[in-house]
Amino acid sequence: MHLFDHYLNHTYKTISCGPETDGIFRIIVPQLAAKFPFLLHGMLACSALHLASSNPLNKRSYMLQAIQHQDQALPAFHLTTMHVDSNNCQAILSYAFFLVVYGLNSESEDEPLFLGNQRTNSSSNWISLLRNGCSMLCDVWSELKHGPLAPFAALWRDDIGVTADPNDPLLVSLLSAISESSETVATAQRFSGDDVHIYRDAALKLAGAFEFTQRFGASLSVWDALNSWLTQVLPEYFDLLDQNHPGALLLLAHYAILLKPLQAEWFLNGRVTKLMDEIGRRLEGNCSLHIWKLFLTARRGFVS
Asked: What percent of the chain has pLDDT over 90?
């Protein structure tokens, strides 16, 4: 099988999280895929996406194959997650990684990275899975942490173990957006009481995410970056993002700076730059002057 061979020869290396997971992606996951068709289709979908990224002349054909395999994988995967047990939990955890890669690589002008509606857009399910995977597998988590997929399980972090410094210049700058929201700002642009709580929580965690990811240096993986903030913010943050709340968009622009070193990965493929551009388009003329200035500073930092 062409896609399967390509996975074994190339794709697994490009989504691996380091030497500890190479053997899992190369040996254990294919063995599980022989027992669970949804995992096999998830592997083949990512392999097709990988080929599409490196074969422009055949991109459309490979993209169609990716969609077909993903369409076969998702219903069976969702059905399996309704009855998690020790027999299927390893396949579920393995498929989660392919679903995240697929979600990161999805290309649509109507669905910029992280800006798809979390409640109504099925292609955004990977974000919910990333955020709630531990809860879904909680009854078997101990087994996963001590089994052959332990390096996979270790990448899911409920707590990154970082507390932001209240004097961090980034945090001070982000929190200034709240104090600036005053009677002089148009009503639609002010932070409500609930907005302040959600925004402050996300800003604190974003400052912590920068500190957390700096520890990894050049070894930072996309899994570390995603777990550093996207899985940590309150669910209500995504509600603000769905509403194009200026504060939520401003935080996402700063998160794009954190992600920028990773956009050379084939499954991100420049999408972080597109995200920054889309945030600017949504903010321009729809936010206070102060938030716009903060965004321009972030964009300059992103470009430099």
From this structure: 56
The answer to whether residues 233 and 205 touch, using CB atoms and an 8 Å cutoff, is: yes
The residue written with tokens 């890669």 in the block is: 101
Place of tokens 């084939």: 266
Per DSSP, the residues of the chain read: -HHHHHIIIIIHHHH--SHHHHHIIIIIHHHHHTT-HHHHHHHHHHHHHHHHHH-GGGHHHHHHHHHHHHHHHHHHHHHHHTT--TTTHHHHHHHHHHHHHHHHH---TTS-TT-S-TTT-GGGHHHHHHHHHHHHTGGGHHHHHTSTTHHHHHT--S-------TT-HHHHHHHHHHHT-STTS-GGGS--HHHHHHHHHHHHHHHHHHHHHHTTGGG--HHHHHHHHTTTS-HHHHHHHHTT-HHHHHHHHHHHHHHGGGTTSTTTTTHHHHHHHHHHHHHTTSS-HHHHHHHHHHHHHHH-
Cβ atoms of residues 148 and 28 within 8 Å: yes
Mean pLDDT calculated for residue range 283-290: 92
pLDDT at position 192 over 90: no
pLDDT surpassing 90 at residue 245: yes
This prediction has a pTM of 0.89
Positive or negative: CA dihedral 270, 273, 275, 277: negative
pLDDT at 123: 45
**Average pLDDT rounded to a whole number, residues 198-206:** 96
The one-letter code for the residue type at 188 is A
Indicate the pLDDT class of residue 124, thresholds 50, 70 and 90: very low
Burial class (CB in 10 A: 0-12, 13-18, 19+), 31: exposed
